Amino acid sequence: MEENPAGAVGKVVRRKEDARLITGRGRYVSDLQLPRMRHVAFLRSPFGHARITRVDASAARELPRVHVFTGDQPEFAAVPLRALSALPSYVETEQPLLAREKVRFAGEPVAAVVADDRYRAEDALELIDVDYEPLPVNITAWLPPTEPLHADAPDNVLLERTFDTGEVPDALAGADLVVERELITNRHAGNPMECRAGVALWDPADDRLTLWSGTQVPHIARNMIADLLGIPEGNVRVIAPDVGGGFGVKAVVYPEDVALCLIARQLRGVPVKWVEDRAEHLLAATHARDHRYVVKAGFRSDGELVALDADVTCNVGAYSVYPWTAGIEPLMAGGLLSGPYRLQHYRCTVRGVATNTAPSGPYRGVARPASVFAMESVLDAAAAELGMSALDIRRRNLITPEEIPYRMPSRLVDDSGWYGECLEKAVESIGYEDFRAEQARRRSAGENPIGLGLACYNELTGLGRAAAAGPRMPFRTGHDACTVRVNPDGRVTVLSGVTSQGQGLETTVAQIVADAVGVSYADVDVRIGDTNESLWGFGAFSSRQAVIGGGAAHRSAVTVREKILRLAAELYEANVDDLGLVNGDVRVAGEAKPVGTLAELARVAYLESNRLPQGIEPGLEATQFYDPIRGAFAAGAQAAVVEVDRATGELKILKYVCVEDAGTVINPQVVEGQIAGSIAQGIGGALYEHLIYDEGGNLSTGTLMDYLMPTSAEVPELVIGHLSHPADNPLGVRGVGEGGTLGPNAVLAGAVTDALGVQVPHLPLTPGAIWEALR
Questions:
Q1: How far, in whole angstroms, is CA 369 from its chain's centroid?
Q2: How far apart are the first and last CA of the chain?
Q3: How do residues 620-657 score in pLDDT, each as one tens digit?
Q4: Distance (Å, rounded) from C-alpha 329 to C-alpha 406?
Q5: Which of 65, 474, 552, 775 could covalently link to 626 via disulfide, CB atoms 3.0 to 4.6 Å apart?
Q6: Pick from 63, 125, 116, 122: which is nearest to 267 by CA?
């Protein structure tokens, strides 16, 4: 039967989360209060690199109701973090929960103190006496190392790989133009609203551990904490309540997380709480984007890209982050550097180099904001030398729909191809011809120059098990599970493996399930973030949740719907093919009135089993997994017009446009919010945010007084356009969580070059950097 086309998917609906979140009733880890709760503080190294010769905690231990834990205690020494990878070049290293023998970055935890409140814990930290023997410090990954961080990696290289396709030397030799560039990107961090936080409680009666954590990956955390602590996974429960932002920073299992669980086991039955402050976050949470690109690209005289040769070095910090390894950024950079451009001859060597800085980990857009900056900068440089426009050189090289599926030189398979359409729509929205006329007028009048920047990108979303673009870890992150249950009253409960940090997933999953089952959106309740409720979900990263979590929800809902209609066909003596379910009413094709309701059927399924037809079991519930196998590429293009003050180097964004192909749009408001938020984050990285270490390995930008972030005053009004070419998955969706971050570096750098005729080869694009380039 053909269903009522008026459903929830594709509409803006009242978000289910908003009732609590916008009225101050959100439930964050920071809000959690339990009886007898005590508080944890960590003593952190003041040195970037040093041997620990002595730790004396005796004075702190003499304080009443204070417990002190150090790295040499057996229960901590026995549980190091070792991020594993099967890549041949990968050097496996060990990260202690609490440093012993030596510290490798300023901010590394050395000891933990438990007290009745955080103030007393901080006071006790000051009584711990640690003797350090300073060692030479390495903070720049592309300079020769002065001292190995790890004995197993004497050159500090933790991973190296070369992507090699075609005949690069010959193609470069035959090119009409070869462009060479060295580009350096800035180091920055996620800075979510709520920093890292956790509460751990060990139940001594059942030997069970409960961890409330602001994590993006509760199921992964449960699996790995159980493994590290040597306890059955069924005895570990991880609850991610409302999470105040994550951006990848909370997709890591940190030493502090595991230490908190060990402390809870030691204090059996006493809950312990740790909430990171902002200074700790800037100092010790994962960083990202600290890359150098040395690129050589060959072009024909008509602008065709014929070869790309690149050497990419990524600063991965002091440790191989758990469980994603030191390969997460370099491998993603090498896998996607060529972007949405046609290319046969490609060679790219990537390496992850350890330094005495905070570990580098996943952060919204993993590596691609840097790699897109490199690729687009090369295209802009070639266009200038060939006398072409930046627009025409992109038109010449973009993959087209006719070439899909397109095998990229890194062997990833691009299933989109709508890049040209995104670009043309962005150019139209920016007012390209009017801009050029105004640019010429300003030049002739001697006014502050304006410039236009462009960037095209392909965002790999919803990675399936065959679309690995990163380290070969012992597990594959291709699938999620979802349970859809019709309750005896006819309402629907969804137990989903997705995890939310503000993406509105309680809303979008409810929209998916409502339409697939055939009930109203208001009758669907979604529960997420508790490993004891949902079967499995890998969590929030790689723009995967609409594609994979949504796919699992859709499959489970369809399975439940099929059982509902089989039951209805028997009870109402109708042909199952003639039946439909619309807003909870059972309808027969051609009849004006419904023949029954879902609530009536649910009562039979649960409470009146004597009426169940033969062959139909009680209950209306289904659990399904979904794996997209490869994933779904999302096409995107961005354009911006900027004005530059020649006297100061100050940059002002006059107009910003983004066009993305999200495939099927589940909720237009959520999609626009994700795109706008990611662009704002990208603008922050392009213009302001920079984590700077001094020569001694000390973080110089350790507060928000020094580490600049954009506010609403710096983020312009955004013009966001959409395409909707369905992807090959149950819902036709493409992820949109990260794409917006990929363009701003390239767009704004290209706009500065277009305005001034000079290139700024390093980020961020501060007024000082632009002024120096003008000199």
A1: 12
A2: 71
A3: 999 999 999 989 999 999 999 999 999 999 999 999 99
A4: 23
A5: 552
A6: 116
